[in-house]
Design a protein that fits this description.
Layout: E1 3-6, H1 20-23, E2 27-30, H2 39-43, E3 48-51, H3 58-63, E4 69-72, H4 82-87, E5 91-93, H5 100-116, H6 118-126, E6 150-154, H7 158-169, E7 173-177, H8 186-192, E8 195-198, H9 212-215, E9 223-226, H10 235-244, E10 249-252, E11 272-274, H11 283-301
Parallel strand pairs: 1-2, 1-3, 3-4, 4-5, 6-7, 6-8, 8-9, 9-10, 10-11
Helix pairs in contact: 5-7
Length: about 300
């Protein structure tokens, strides 16, 4: 039985989701967290490595010549040096599409929180405001319907398409910007959308796609949502846009540096809601993820690797 190492198990379970589908396949050493300095040592002579966010670099491959399979607890693989993996004959298997429903759900949770002002109205009630009211209702905080609004979806893979289906159910107009398939122009999507939501991968083409220039194209009443990757946004430009009123608000689940730095320019802004990279993390989603990672391991052990992004 080949030896396997899980480098950052705490990123997929706090004990609420079982790792048994993985550990039953190999002799497995589990680390809850591995610092960058510990990666090579914790891998050692293992043939199989499972990780979410640990960076596997050329130096790691050089130090761990027995490494032949990296199973990712993720769709994205920008933390793996893919060219180095190819040179060292290592399979890198990701898990595409596992979180489409949960990320689309979280996207709309952020959107609905903004347009229905759930947090603000709950605070009003909990702080005693409704108790003091003479009326049965209180609508001093403006509310808006989603029906008739235009949502611009940047990136139209499985998550973007799931978001579009929900938007259509709300009676919204959908604009799409994608580099593959039929697409609106980026300028049109930014200019005409009441909501711009990001669902594109992070790569050289999309890095800081949302910046001072593109933010200036958006409506001053627009909401920007990001549940993709933090690096798609220049956070300093976004902070300036939020402070100056170039756009109305932002709702963010991902940041360039995670966990969030105390000096992140978005932290503390009243018109920016931030959640800690949890759009992918419902229990059902993580159970599905672990099952799919186990399937990738089985395929590798059977000599027919699947989802190999280094192939």
């Amino acid at each position: 039985m080949p030896r396997a190492v899980i480098l950052d198990a705490d990123t997929v379970t706090s004990g609420d989701v079982s790792l048994e589908p993985l550990t039953s396949l190999t002799g497995t050493t589990i680390f809850g967290y591995t610092s960058p300095e510990e990666i090579a040592a914790n891998i050692g002579d293992a043939e199989i490595v499972l990780t979410n966010k640990c960076r596997i670099t050329e130096e790691v491959f050089e130090a761990c010549p027995n490494l032949k399979f990296i199973g990712l607890f993720a769709t994205g693989y920008n933390n793996i040096d893919i060219e180095a993996a190819k040179r060292h004959g290592c399979v890198v298997a990701n898990v595409p599409g596992y979180s489409s429903n949960s990320v689309a759900q979280h996207t709309f949770a952020l959107i609905l929180n903004y347009f229905s002002k759930i947090h603000e109205y709950n605070s009003y009630v909990q702080n005693g405001g409704w108790c003091k009211s003479k009326l049965f209702t209180h609508f001093d905080i403006p509310l808006n319907e989603l029906s008739g609004k235009t949502i611009g979806i940047i990136g139209y893979g499985s998550i973007g398409k799931s978001v579009a289906k929900i938007a259509i159910a709300f009676g919204m107009k959908v604009l799409v910007y994608t580099r593959t398939g039929q697409s609106n122009a980026l300028e049109e999507v930014l200019r005409d959308s009441d909501i711009v939501t990001l669902h594109c991968p992070l790569n050289e083409r999309t890095k800081e796609l949302i910046n001072c220039r593109t933010l200036s194209m958006m409506k001053p009443t627009a909401l920007l949502v990001n549940t993709s990757r933090g690096g798609v946004i220049n956070e300093y430009d976004l902070a300036d846009a939020l402070k100056s009123g170039k756009i109305a608000s932002a709702a963010i689940d991902v940041l360039t540096d995670e966990p969030i730095s105390p000096d992140c320019p978005l932290l503390g802004l009243p018109n920016c809601v931030i959640t800690p990279h949890v759009a992918w993390a419902p229990i059902e989603t993580r159970v599905r993820l672990i099952g799919l990672v186990a399937d990738n391991i089985k395929a590798y052990l059977d000599g027919s690797p699947t989802n190999n992004v280094a192939g």
